Fold each of these.
Amino acid sequence: MKSLAINQAMDILKLLRQVAEGQDDVPSKLARITKIIAEQLNADASACYVSVDDDYLELFSSFGFSPDAAHKIKLRYGEGLVGEVAKTSRSLAVSDAWSHPKFSYKKGMGEEEYKSFLGVPLIRRSRSIGVLTVQSKEIHEYSRLEIEILETVAMVLAEMIASDEMSEYKKTLIKERGLATRERIKGLSLSKGYGLGKAVVHRRRQAVTKIFAEDKEKELRRLEIAHREMNDDLDAKFDAAQLGIGEHVDILDAYRMFAKDKGWYKKIADNVNSGLTVEAAVERAYEDMWNRLSGTKDSYLKERLHDLRDVADRLQSYLSGDTKNSEETGQWSDIIVVAQTMGPADLMDYDYNKIRGLIIEDGTPTMHVAIVAKALNIPVIAKIKGIFEEIKTGELIAVDGNDSYVYIHPSQAVQDKFKTKIAEKEKLQARLAELRKLPAKTLDGIRIGLYVNVGLAFDLDYIAATNCDGVGLYRTEIPFMASDVMPDVEKQTAYYKELMDKAGNKKVIFRSLDVGSDKLLPYWGSVGEENPAIGWRSIRITLDRRAILRKQLRAFLRAAAGKELNVMFPMISDLFEFEEAKETLLIELEKEKRRGDPVPSKVNTGLMIEVPSVVFQLEPILKQADFISVGTNDLAQFIFACDRGNPRLTERYDVLSSPFLKVMGEIVSQANAADVYCSVCGEMASNPIEAMALIGLGFRNLSSSGSSFGRVKSMIRTINVEEVSDYVKTLLKSQKRTLRPQLLAYAYDHGIEIY
Ligand code: PEP
Ligand code: MG
């Protein structure tokens, strides 16, 4: 394979295009394509592997290898040189394949006489969907230019492989082999609920058919126009929408700034100047960024990659002039949006009152669009490989966010089941709405303080909607995370004041900034710790960077002027940390008074019980704290030494087990004995059966998520505290790894409402 000039690459692409657009069937097209690639690149052999079933690559066509190897040779991702290319999504050039440690010999392939190997991934939406290789009999060092040419060819080939024609072909192969086509597919639920509707595939990007441009100036003009139109439309859409104020607006504003980012624009323009069309230049800019960032563990940067993919897609649609959802989909009343990835702004392209479900192939729980969808009560399923390519607009889809399933073309029986579930949910919503006026009182007359947790602006509406006793946890970090710069005291005061106003006379507990670990701030960068969950985070940061804490405390004091202020410090591991934090608050209070500014009528200071060490210091702590609140999410993570975000561990330990319940029992009995207000604001308080156990242990204040509030209240109104307490006490002696089945059976036997 000799050095090739760019115009030779263009010739190859032209030939490939002719084949792709021809009338041949898929196998013949692929056979011709591998032959062209080998011949044009002066190689002795070429092969194209495609992923058919999630983790396997299959040889689809080859030139220069055994003619009957196609569809017989299969490799796992990571197996051999080809598998390595697919797994890492990176090109691999080896002058002598046989001496490479990853080489694995495949009998029947006919590769015995080949030495040099060049493999490039076929990437589609950041994922390897196949591998293209060339090989030669000679030992050969591949040049950068040769690699780039094959990568460019691979870009076009990847689009062909992802075409409807190819996915139909893959489906026939699966059927012929007698494998069941997937009807019910397991994913990861990011938001609960049931939905049934017609699929609307979210902006399935058109293949980039033209890679090289003849007229740079013309391309740069196209870029400028599309970029301007996109940003004008975004501005108009956001300005017209009734978004109110709050951090969801910040999320969307940050997105808007991203779309206007000068560095990104320049990168695309530079790519155009090097000879690419704008469409190819946009993809190249994304791929460069993806190559740099995809390996990062930093969840903030990962989210930025999602945003970049989203903005790139948006720009592509302006370049192609295809910026509207089709008329047809606009008329459907129940839609399930299916996306590879999606930005928060994309939900605004649909009438979100019609969205019955969202499927995001590359979704993560922290993804902005998932957070927004959850707040809108839309069930969301993520992490199903290949689903985006599989579903076509108009297909009937059912989404089960409770058990994490997606159904494609659900049978009549499944549809009926979903309709019943949806109707039940509506009935339940209505019942829960009736509950709004009734007190959170148990059958034996004990009033439980029932609060809501607030993070996103949407949550603010729950204060009135639930008729709760107040806000048991205000997670202040979300506005900080959504902003591009640290919000100043005025901005923070405005946020907090909005909450105080919405709460009226109800109690509000502000938590000081709880960042670090999985909650990273864009303007701080990552400190690259080995163990961020037990690293420099939360109160440890704000005590070290005291100015940040002081500013936040000042904003709390101002927002609560004339009212009671409750400030809670997170992740306290030792009494002295709490003392320092409390003293900082009291100093700020004095400063405000000296300045003559209005101050709160009363200031209470508390802490979260999230680190096991404080459970053993409760005695002195309870002498100094006005209140405590148990963060069971972190407390369980540290008690079981079990990463709370790792799905592999979710089923391994249960908070409804004797060790954890004993710790909870110890906390509440000490607090009750000291007559210190004590609540639970972790997820346990949002789960009715877990909340029932907490009440049984002695907790009388719970702070749940707004969406679970009604279900928890329903449970409270159907329990007898004395009986539950007796039962929970006997259970604590059990050695079982989970007490959940027993507690559920108890609830069922006693007519306790657990939804
Ligand atoms: C907790 O850890 O239980 C808690 C409420 O805090 P967060 O989930 O915000 O860490
Ligand atoms: Mg916590």
Note: The chain has a mean pLDDT of 87.
Amino acid sequence: MEIDNLNKTNFTKIIDNQEVSLFNLTNKNGFICQITNFGARIVSFIIPVGTSGIDVVLGYDSIEEYQNDDYYLGVVAGRYANRIANGKFILDAKEYSLFVNNGPNTLHGGQKGFDKVVWNARPFLNENNEEALELSYLSIDGEEGFPGNLKVNVTYTLTNKNEIKIDYSAETDAKTVLNLTNHAYFNLKGAGEGTITSHDLSLNADYFTPTDAGAIPTGEIRSVSNTPMDFRIARKIGERINDDYVELIQGIGYDHNWVLNKESNALSHVATVSEASTGIQLNVFTTEPGVQFYSGNYLNIKKGKYAKSYPTRSGFCLETQHFPDSPNHEDFPSTVLNPNETYTQTTIYQFEVK
Ligand code: BGC
């Protein structure tokens, strides 16, 4: 099976004086999730199909390729997932300046975000005997320009319900902003097996946040009605992706935050993606108010795992999150974290084979 090709020694290395390794989680149904503590990244998710398996997560064969990755494959993005306009925000009348790494803006935490740091790793079995990996990281006051010493924990659990369950928590010693997400690219035909435009997608969202040409929300909350952004009823990702609609032209496809239909921050079902040719379906649940649906428009990876290539639109991300650039939009749900508060978020990617 394909997993044999991923050589664990290619993932073992000392980076920043810490040991980096590849961790395998398996469940009783034969599903496998591989994670590296470099960037808290999901490297593979292998679904047993017949006598073989389909790996639905895009990734690389070695840690060196992850060190050079510009696409945020499988990462935990932070401290602030997605963009902060001009790399600036104000908290209590003080302006903070971040490293700008995406045109004039800050993307996914700056120059060395959570995707490029080494996390402490602790594999364990949970109360249901399911395999889990707790990753923790201390982001020091001033790192990438963000205030506060921030302790972050991310626990990945591969459940017997064929879910990757991701539980995040964080605490700070000074007022700060925080927005964490996972940036795995999925392809339900199998990573490297063509584009994702044939997948059916539904999103439980009546509104989305339109952006300017630099992908920063304008502040408008727009109804999806009568637009190509309407996924309330499942339809193919590719059906309207090339429409003459300014949001899609700017993003070269979908790269937007949808405002999830939710009344509270309880865990709820927010998205479903399915691929008829393999029968694989992904159901997404989250406690977050938004999801960035990114159709992998900028992907251009010549050599991913098993020597396969990942061209444009060969993977999609459903990044459950608070809205991009919230620190600069008072009417968006707040991303402020105060000392003595605990940030939490839970997201579940659940797989079925029909
Ligand atoms: C962003 C895209 C960006 C990608 C980076 C997504 O979260 O919305 O604009 O290109 O991450 O790989």
Note: The longest strand covers residues 343-353.
